[in-house]
Amino acid sequence: MNPGTSVHEQPENLVEVDDLRVSYGDVTALEGVSLTLEANKIYGLIGRNGSGKTSLLSVLAAFRRADAGTVRVEGRDPYEDADIVSRVCLIRESGDLPAAKIRQIIGLYRELRPNWDQELADRLLRRFDLPAGRNVSKLSRGMKSAFGCLLGLASRAPLTMFDESYLGMDAPARYIFIEELLRDYVEYPRTFIVSTHLIEEFGRLFEEVLIVDKGRLIVHDTVDSLRERGVSISGPAELVDRFAMGLDVLGEQVLGPTKQVTVYSHPTDDLRRQAKAAGLELGTLPLQDLFVHLTTRPERNPS
């Protein structure tokens, strides 16, 4: 992807998080999370329910303060920094929408968001078939989700985050959202973080993926690298066991004399030749399958 010229000069590293901890009473939502996100990329944030995804996004958006560690957006702590907050947009599944008409809420966002694009908002109103004069409280769940996505895209915030904000939308509306996000990203590059359980559907958006599990960041890698590292090995059980010895095995399945193991490893050309010579079959895993394996095995510390 070759984005055009950005509307803002941004530091190379837009987001820097070091040893972040977030707690709710006795419950620790995030512990020891450190990450660096470059400007003008689309990141996928995936994890099981309760893994800490929403807590991470809430801290980045200054919805709450970190209990420990440091958080920097454009080199500054976003908490209680009005200038940074105006340049960060988080759209949550709940929508956080006031009981007002669509056009009134758009007017409010236009005042609060310095990069707001009204032409884009108008186009998305048409594409999502949203009634500008209707009160949000009267919208269907799908329309509320579409309106939230409209607000996030039209804000054109340098850091824009969507936290499962499209779950109420049907498949055609989600495809419109993906199409419009990619289209606008090419014209106006910025940093997106998209948190989703619909991994295969949204995976084509992502340049890099962050996997959070039980409050810890267990993977941060490019999509291409992740796809290469998820490998299935199939064949006679004894040969598969011998071949997989010393590899990072995520899971296995046995059907009679045949066995398939899933490993987390970069297979070298030599390894592939050895597998072929041994009569074994190597395959790649879909991103969603790899995520499931990584977050359900007993030991969750992939190297």
UniProtKB/TrEMBL annotation:
Q: What is this protein called?
A: ABC-2 type transport system ATP-binding protein
User: Gene3D superfamilies from the entry?
Assistant: P-loop containing nucleotide triphosphate hydrolases
State the taxonomy lineage: Bacteria, Bacillati, Actinomycetota, Actinomycetes, Micromonosporales
Q: Domain of life, per the record?
A: Bacteria
- Naturally occurring in which organism (per UniProt): Phytomonospora endophytica
- List, alphabetically, the PANTHER family matched: ABC TRANSPORTER ATP-BINDING PROTEIN ALBC-RELATED (PTHR42939)
- Please state every residue range assigned to the domain named ABC transporter: 15-239
Q: Which InterPro entries match?
A: ABC_transporter-like_ATP-bd, ABC_Transporter_VariousFunc, P-loop_NTPase
User: What is an example of a GO molecular function annotated in this UniProt entry?
Assistant: ATP hydrolysis activity
Q: Is Acetylation set as a keyword in this record?
A: no
Q: Which keywords belong to this entry?
A: ATP-binding, Nucleotide-binding, Transport
Reply yes or no: does the keyword ATP-binding apply.
Answer: yes
